Prior knowledge:
Blueprint: H1 7-18, H2 22-35, H3 43-66, E1 80-85, H4 91-98, E2 116-122, E3 125-131, H5 142-147, E4 150-155, H6 158-168, E5 174-179, H7 187-199, E6 204-206, H8 215-226, E7 229-234, E8 245-247, H9 253-260, E9 268-274, E10 283-285, E11 296-301
Parallel strand pairs: 1-3, 1-4, 4-5, 5-6, 7-11
Antiparallel strand pairs: 2-3, 7-8, 9-10, 9-11
Amino acid sequence: xxxxxxxxxxxxxxxxxxAKSIEDKIEKLKKMISYAPAHKGGENLRAQLKTRLKxxxxxxxxxxxxxxxxxxxxxKEDMQTVIIGKTNSGKSSLLNSLTNAKPEISxxxxxxxxxxxxxxxxxxxxxxxxxxxxxxxxxxxxxxxHTTDTLLVLINALEELKEIExxxxxxxxxxxxxxxxxxxxxxxxxxxxxxxLQSRKYNFILVSSLTGEGLEELKERLFExxxxxxxxxxxxGKEKSKRPIIxxxxxxxxxxAEKILKGFSQKVRETKIWGPSSKFSGQIVGLNHKLKDLDVxxxxxx
Length: 302
């Protein structure tokens, strides 16, 4: 660590060392440079950092020209949503409010240059939420937007929606329009916005990351958008699992067994069920039994 370095510089250096993608390294290195000592003794350090930044930018440019991606792969979870919106729309603040992620919140334009990931825990289920860089920036990831289960389209003005939809093009992904910073609106403005979005038959909600307005309803609306089954398992004589297995509607007991372990269904000799799809508690069913949300299954093996 350089002499007289600010604690912010040390923290930024730690973030840089943990960065995996080129984009992240560039972002953290710029932050280090901004916190580097300004006195004469820090001249060599600043020069070294700028040289390192120049090399990273050249590396990124080469990757772009060759068509290679420097992005870190994102493993899609059972339920995934992506936040999209224009720069400074409050995407990082919303991600922070909904999940365990702690993204850096900045008021400068295009401050997010790589996707940020967090997990939202709701009613025993976990939902992966990803903040996509600003939709009008070069860092915006179209692939994430078009492969996710549900989109949270974040806007601060009605005019932004038309711009975003034009960039999105034809998309069949479920969308929830999130009108952000509702704490800055009076009641008349809220009614006007709600009336406009309702007349256009949007699934929408007004929220404020600052006051928390609408966030609980947004979580509920988001969870319902997935239309997934939460299936619990249990061992004989024990309580059900704390975390459910997530499956699509129409799933069977066999699907649960196979999700536990591939080939496991072949070892099952008896299946008991409790919950909405059972006629009575502990009913013995076959592996082709169709499940309902919140069912609990117990498998006995051969």
